[in-house]
């Protein structure tokens, strides 16, 4: 039996808890010319941006650099957070400053030790949706055009 | 501390167990013109095909119909199965026959009761990869060009 739908405020709190969690594992979808790509990456949440770290030559980094768009999922398939986001900035790990500090503090690895080819990818969320079961599909949009609705 | 890497045979057994599991929740990435799409869907595994069920008007069904390609993830971000797949067939739920029986038997809902706009999407796996931690990245490819390597 499904629980009662959460309030928008409770959903936003759950979204932020997932984004702030130690080792926030995310599924990151990007695309290149109708071809989808999808990998798990560890995310951080810093200054209202989703921060990813990967090799600059990886398909995820290349697709984001070329086309600027990602769709990021956190949580489980029946406790979903989906974030449509745009690449704001790519920062080589050697130049990452506070972003690098924040990422390493939240997670269980430090991309700044992974080699010069690694970069931080800062994604600006444009739309955020969160739902558990069918009874939460209504009201699932918590951010639109980069602005929290709650 | 990471465990020892699993053998290829053990990984294949784990992949098939995930695909055969009751309520196999999958992350399904598709794309349209450099724009990624990603949603959770419940999968079934029938005759070596990944079977999805969704509304024919959904972005996933439209992207697959237009471009034929999906990348499907099962498991958790540190116990990953990734499947690159091609759309083989789209079957209206009313005409699904054995596929519809198999899907309903494996899962906790029956798309044949969801309305005439629902379809089954049969995806043919071309590449299957499975890994847990970094020490399993070597040897992660279990299927290539539609053929099991183990």
From TrEMBL, chains A, B:
Gene3D superfamilies tied to this protein: Electron Transport, Fmn-binding Protein, Chain A
InterPro entries linked to this entry: Split_barrel_FMN-bd
Protein name: Pyridoxamine 5'-phosphate oxidase
Species per Swiss-Prot/TrEMBL record: Paractinoplanes deccanensis
């Amino acid at each position: 039996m499904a629980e009662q739908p959460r309030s928008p405020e409770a959903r936003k709190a759950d979204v932020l808890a997932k984004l702030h969690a130690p080792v926030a594992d995310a599924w990151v979808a990007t695309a290149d010319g109708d071809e989808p790509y999808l990998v798990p990456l560890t995310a951080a949440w810093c200054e209202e941006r989703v921060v990813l770290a990967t090799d600059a030559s990886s398909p995820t980094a290349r697709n984001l650099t070329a086309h600027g768009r990602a769709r990021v999922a956190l949580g489980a398939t029946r406790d979903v957070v989906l974030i449509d986001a745009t690449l704001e900035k790519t920062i080589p790990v050697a130049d990452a400053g506070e972003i690098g500090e924040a990422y390493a503090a939240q997670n269980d690895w430090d991309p700044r030790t992974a080699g010069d080819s690694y970069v931080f990818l800062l994604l600006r969320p444009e739309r955020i949706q969160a739902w558990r079961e069918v009874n939460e599909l209504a009201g699932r949009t918590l951010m639109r055009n980069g602005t929290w609705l709650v």
